[in-house]
Write a structure and sequence with these properties.
alpha+beta, four-stranded antiparallel beta sheet
Length: 224
């Protein structure tokens, strides 16, 4: 009976947190500010403690999730409506390299050392500090880098090359499963896909690890 209660509490807690995340939006996942980090910790603790406390029932779990979710939602509305609150609640980006020079005061203020800065730069493909003209530490702890001109890759406009249309690749098969909505949006049918696969020596899409369609380049497949 105890295992059943724990399973039920975990299921309800997971469902509640999932619904809450959907309501609050994707930024709760992709842009983890200091406030979002605290929110995630508190929500995890609320559900985790409730699971192993027999005195706390499902209604308590849902109540805690709703109240905490409401508080987070109110804070999000405040930051959207009142710009002055954003630096305090969300933080603000900080320039840590300006015109090729490291701003030591900003590093110190954000508790960063040179090794950590180098690590962040390497994550953006910058392996030498001399390559960076500007670097901005974002509110979620990531870094945005603007390279110096000699280290910046040339573009088509630099070579005066004609523009090309940008095409979005469409995944048709993933792990042997046909993604029917993508197939329909591409204007194709399952019969067309089977014909294309047959031309490439594949019997069925179930034998594919991955299949992708890109206009002007055709169908790309990879078998298991």
């Amino acid at each position: 009976m105890e295992y059943f209660r724990i399973t039920l509490d975990l299921g309800v807690g997971l469902l509640g947190l999932l619904v809450l995340t959907k309501i609050l939006g994707k930024t709760q996942i992709t842009q983890i500010t200091a406030f979002d980090f605290i929110s995630a910790l508190v929500l995890g603790e609320l559900v985790g403690n409730a699971v192993f406390d027999q005195k706390i029932g499902i209604s308590h779990i849902l109540f805690a999730i709703v109240i905490w979710g409401g508080l987070i939602y109110v804070i999000e509305v405040i930051t959207q409506k009142i710009r002055r609150t954003r630096p305090f609640l969300e933080g603000k980006p900080t320039i840590i390299i300006h015109k090729g020079k490291i701003i030591k005061e900003h590093l110190k203020k954000n508790k960063l050392d040179i090794n950590q800065l180098q690590h962040l730069l390497r994550s953006k493909g910058v392996f030498s500090i001399r390559e960076a003209e500007y670097a901005i530490l974002e509110t979620d702890g990531s870094i945005s880098v603007l390279k110096k001109s000699p280290y910046d890759p040339p573009t088509r406009s630099d070579y005066k090359m004609a523009e090309q249309k940008v095409r979005l690749p469409i995944t048709l098969v993933s792990d042997g499963v046909l993604i029917e909505e993508n197939l329909r949006e591409s204007g194709f049918s399952e019969a067309w896909l089977q014909s294309e696969l047959k031309n490439q020596g594949v019997t069925t899409y179930k034998d594919l690890l991955f299949a992708e369609w890109l206009e002007e380049e055709g169908l790309y497949i990879q078998e298991y």
